[in-house]
Amino acid sequence: MRFLIFCVLYCLVALCCSGQTNPNATIGGLVVDANGKGMAGVSVKVLGKQTGITTNDSGRFELVLRAGRALALEFTYVGYKTRQQNFYLSPGEIETVTIVMEPGLGTLETVTVNNRRNRQESGSVTINPKQALVAPTPIGGIENLIKIQVGDGNELSSQYKVRGGNYDENLVYVNDFEVFRPYLIRNGQQEGLSFINPELARSVSFYNGGFQARYGDKMSSVLDVEYKQPTRFGGSAYAGLLEQGAHLE
Q1: 32 in helix, strand or coil?
Q2: Residues 163, 142: Cα–Cα separation, whole Å
């Protein structure tokens, strides 16, 4: 009889103790860099879940999780490699770890440029040099094609003004070299001559505002001229009522 009572009491005590057992476990610790300094703001979350915590100013963290199953913690921080630590905790267990984060070495992928066509930029106008030879104006030249774009109606001059600026406020580049205004035709000095030979020009770009910083600033416009780079012998000639010309390359 006494033995039976003892067994019943033992079972009741065991059931009470098992009911009070903590079904959770605690994981805490410190996250440091390669020099052993605590890292603040490191993201700590259970792998596969969206929510998590971040380390405090000292680099410490603490998580209370359901015990009795395998889980993995993921540690992430910008500029560092992602660390993953696996755990299997018993109910009521307290686990303390130290995580060392390693700097990440980001490698950019190789970029292959296979299209070198010029893009149309805001405020830019592409001019065909060949059109200067057939332009119906008293004075030929690429400058007269520019006047059509900017609305300058002076047909007897090769100079032009843009957006209310003066005639001398226009930048001119030839093969990426700036040609300063004192070397160009000025008012009253051979006014009708064009600075650019359309037969020698390969491409002409005109910017009437908002041009790139590489051209400078505080000017009204930019005229960018690129001359040909001949690959074989050639030439041309033309004749008209007002002028004649020829070129050899």
Answers
A1: strand
A2: 19
Q: DSSP 3-state assignment of 215?
A: helix
**pTM score, two decimals?**
0.46
Written as six digits, the tokens of 153 are 């109606």
| Unique residue bearing structure tokens 């059931």 | 15
| Dist CA 161 CA 209 (whole Å) | 12
Cα 236 → chain centroid: 45
Residue keyed to tokens 């059509």: 148
User: What are residue 178's DSSP bridge partners?
Assistant: 173
Q: How far apart are CA 230 and CA 163, in angstroms?
A: 36
Q: Is 176 left (phi over 0), alpha (psi -120 to 50) or beta?
A: left
Which residue type sits at 27? I
What DSSP string runs through 58-111? TSEEEEEEE-SSEEEEEEE-TTB--EEEEEE--TT-EEEEEEE--B----PPP-
Q: Report the run of H or E that residue 28 belongs to, with start and end.
A: strand 24-32
Instruction: Compute the C-alpha angle 62/63/69, nearest 5°.
Output: 140
pLDDT digits (tens, 9 = 90+) for 60-90: 999 998 888 888 999 999 889 999 999 988 8
Q: Give just the sign of the alpha carbon dihedral 207, 208, 214, 216.
A: positive
| CB-CB contact of 49 with 82 (8 Å) | no
CA 173/CA 171 separation, integer angstroms: 7
